[in-house]
Amino acid sequence: MDSVEQIAALLREARFPVALTGAGISTASGIPDFRTPGTGLWSKVDPAEVASIDAFMTDAVRFWSFYRHRIGSLTAVEPNPAHYALARLEKAGFVKALITQNIDRLHRKAGSSAMVEVHGSIDFCVCLDCGNRYGHDRMEDALVDPEGIPTCDCGRILKPGVVFFGEMLPDDAYGQAVSWAQAADVMLVAGSSLQVWPVAGLPDLTLRGGGRLIILTASETPFDDRATVVEHGPLEEVLPQVADLLGA
Ligand code: ZN
After folding, report:
1. 119 assigned to active site
2. Which end of the chain is more exposed for a tag (fewer CB within 10 A), N or C?
3. What is the pLDDT of residues 50-96, one digit of tens each?
């Protein structure tokens, strides 16, 4: 049995299969891994320094001078066949819930709905003074002007709805991810190298509950030796093959 058949068999038998996705699922959409050194703009700056809550609080104008390019590049991208395959698997009942580390909205665009974005999303932005939230359009409209910066009605510069370096994950999102990971009898890890805590601890919750792991990621992960299936092939080819095999 090849790994596509193995993955399909595990998902078919699972009572509560959960997917956990990371940056690797979006690279085929043309989004470089934010944390990978040497990729475009971010090769010149340290994202942990620029996209940190300290940097934003210290100098929000400087923050936006870097981050505007990221918002711009993420606004134009489209889901790839891996995102669509996960949405098909959800509709057919072979994925019950999706936890993503990605902020790019591509699962949402592809049609996944039972999902939690544990690192937040560029789908909205927020005012740290008055708590007002605005949709993505608020950023897009302001950033059309090369000097423009999105601001709240109260005048304060807005923060994208993403979790920055140095910030805690939102309790409600992370709590949901933990309960899904604990309930999962199969966890399908797609495109995450499982290096970023606390999300990297989720597969351990599934394993401790007696669940099994499928790891579908280009690089090795700390969980490879505990997984039932490990496949390093391209997600945008493997996941549609799994969905096809399941008739999803
Ligand atoms: Zn405000």
Report:
1. yes
2. N
3. 778 999 999 999 999 988 988 888 888 999 999 999 999 999 999 99
**Domain 1-30+79-119+168-248 class, CATH top level:** alpha beta
Reading phi first (left if > 0) and then psi (alpha if -120 to 50, else beta), residue 108 is in alpha
Q: Residue 198, preceding bond cis, omega within 30 degrees?
A: yes
* Class level of CATH domain 32-76+122-162: alpha beta
Residue 184 pLDDT more than 50? yes
Query: Is the per-residue pLDDT at 41 higher than 70?
Result: no
Distance 158 CA to ligand 1 centre (A): 8
CA of 126 to the centre of ligand 1 (A): 8
The whole-model pTM stands at: 0.91
d(Cα 138, Cα 198) in Å, to the nearest integer? 30
Domain parsing of the chain, residue ranges: 1-30+79-119+168-248, 32-76+122-162
Query: How much distance in Å is there from the Cα of 107 to the middle of ligand 1?
Result: 29
Q: Do 1-30+79-119+168-248 and 32-76+122-162 show the same overall fold?
A: no
Q: Which of 83, 107, 119, 136 is catalytic?
A: 119
